[in-house]
Each structure stands twice: as C-alpha cells, then as structure tokens.
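Tokens as discussed.
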C-alpha cells in the first residue's frame, strides 16, 4: 500500500479510528505563578491522579495511559469489556495530525454534522458543505504544509491491519 501523502492511489482502503488524546493543557504567559501552574498540570497528568479522574463517571476524561487501564476504578467505571475494547482500538488508532489551522477542519465537520443530526439539512448536504469548507481550509493553510504534517506524523501511525 502507498502510504505517502503524495500517493493518490492506494491498493486498498484501510480504516482507522482516531482517538482524541488529551493533547493540551496550558499555562498562561501572564500567570503570576507559571512554575506552580506547570507542576499542577504535571500532577494532574500523573497516572494515579489521571486514573482517578478518568474513573469518575461524572467526569469527561477518557483513559489513555497504560496505567489507567490497570486501575480497578477505571475498570469498574468503564467495565472490563470496554477497557479491553479501548486498549485494542488504541493499538490501531491514528493520532490526530497537529498543525496550525487543523481545528478549522474539525469545526466545519462538527457544525455540519450537528445541522444534519438536528434535521436542519440532509446528511448529503452536510457532507457537501463540509467538503467545500475543507477545501477553503486547505487553500488557506496550503496543501504542501498539510502534506508535510501528515508525512511527519506517519511514523506514529500503527502498522496493525485487520
């Protein structure tokens, strides 16, 4: 299979899940105590605390660290069958591609999916509008820049195919 971003024809279609790992937590440049803020974020991201946060049924963090999946509270909250499912999905998931402007693609898709799900437009219309908006984003960002971002992320992509 041709995995290069410039390759237009693939021998076969490989579908992948995309997992939205908790990619971002920030400390403001105007923070009065940036070091303390950064240490707090490190503490929150530690496996024990993050496992506790992701096991909270009222929370919104999903487990992603190996230690999270071995935590009894996470397993109780997510149930053993789902923990196993998430582990297997992660092995096959493609990480999100990060570059300036990438969120514009997500916003366009979100808005059009919501319009379709709420009955404001058909699914076909939603996808046509998404395509047009994505083309604008690609023109703004630059196709070469996007291709470079995809190529740079490829070493992190899984090799499991099933």
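Sequence:
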């Amino acid at each position: 299979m041709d995995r290069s971003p410039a390759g237009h024809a693939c021998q076969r279609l490989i579908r992948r899940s995309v997992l939205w790992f908790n990619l971002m937590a920030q400390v403001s440049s105007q923070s009065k105590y940036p070091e303390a803020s950064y240490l707090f974020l490190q503490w929150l991201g530690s496996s024990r605390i993050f496992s506790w946060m992701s096991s909270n049924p009222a929370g919104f963090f999903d487990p992603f660290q190996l230690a999270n999946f071995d935590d009894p509270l996470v397993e109780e909250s997510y149930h053993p069958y789902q923990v196993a499912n998430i582990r297997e999905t992660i092995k096959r998931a493609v990480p999100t591609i990060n570059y300036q402007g990438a969120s514009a693609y997500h916003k366009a898709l979100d808005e059009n999916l919501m319009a379709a799900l709420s009955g404001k437009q058909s699914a076909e219309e939603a996808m046509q509008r998404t395509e047009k908006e994505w083309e604008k984003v690609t023109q703004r960002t630059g196709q070469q820049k996007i291709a470079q971002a995809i190529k740079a992320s490829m070493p992190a992509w899984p090799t499991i195919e099933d």
